[in-house]
């Protein structure tokens, strides 16, 4: 998986959170995921299907960060992850993926997006089953950490 | 979402577990998911993308049932959900979805499958974000319960 493929997702995530939630996330170093595991409390996931590629994307938030983003985006601050937070995380995943999809289409990489799935549960972990490289990248904020994971079978 | 669309997934799940793990699951009643939430410990998820449809599938297992299936499929019985169990659950989701895809293609319903994502975490819950009906169906076994969820935006 090359940088040309990854960068639009990174740019899209920072852009979506900046414009929608006035939240500046500090990008960490992208790593090939091997032993590194994203643990978080709420994750938005989207399946990706193209003519010749398949893949998946996930964005995992620690609870404290998800609640802060909820507060900044919608003005409410629930005390725990509820249906509204879950919906928001799914929408963020959708916007991030949609932004990257547009940018990648300009370079001839076309794929379709499945509908988002959101998982809520204290300290869950995610395993992308793909026959190809997996990229994981932390994004830090004073309220907590988010992890972006992308993988494609090419 | 009509029965013609749902039945191949139900048949494929019971068939995969019967042939691969000698495990007979008892299908419960399919319901439109509204308040009904699948809680489980390990879930295999796959995004679905067709020309005019998008959707998602998940199969959620209680830990006790996942470990028993692992024992029957591979002869090992880990004491908790580890990477091998996670991989197995992803493969089951892949086989179930692949079987249903073949059956549906015969009726002119074509879609592509994303790569599976597996989430592990005690008692997590799943929220499929789709603008359309969501179907949830329990499958019971003496070792625990599995939940199949399917949704499409049409």
UniProtKB/TrEMBL annotation, chains A, B:
Keywords tagged on the record: Chemotaxis
Domain Chemotaxis phosphatase CheX-like stretches: 42-140
InterPro entries attached to this UniProt entry: CheC-like_sf (IPR028976), CheX-like (IPR038756), CheX-like_dom (IPR028051)
Superkingdom of origin: Bacteria
Pfam families: CheX
CDD domains for this protein: CheX
Protein name (database record): Chemotaxis protein CheX
Protein source organism: Aliiglaciecola litoralis
């Amino acid at each position: 998986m090359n940088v040309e493929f990854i960068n639009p997702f990174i740019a899209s995530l920072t852009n979506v959170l900046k414009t929608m939630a006035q939240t500046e996330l500090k990008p960490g170093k992208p790593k090939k995921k091997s032993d590194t595991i994203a643990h978080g409390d709420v994750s938005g996931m989207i399946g990706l299907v193209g003519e010749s590629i398949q893949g998946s994307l996930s964005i995992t938030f620690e609870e404290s960060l998800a609640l802060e983003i909820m507060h900044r985006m919608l003005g409410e601050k629930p005390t725990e992850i509820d249906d509204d937070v879950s919906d928001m995380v799914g929408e963020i995943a959708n916007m991030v993926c949609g932004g990257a999809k547009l940018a990648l289409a300009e370079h001839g990489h076309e794929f379709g997006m499945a509908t988002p799935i959101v998982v809520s549960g204290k300290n869950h972990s995610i395993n992308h089953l793909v026959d190809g490289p997996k990229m994981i990248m932390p994004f830090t904020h004073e309220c907590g950490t988010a992890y972006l994971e992308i993988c494609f079978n090419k």
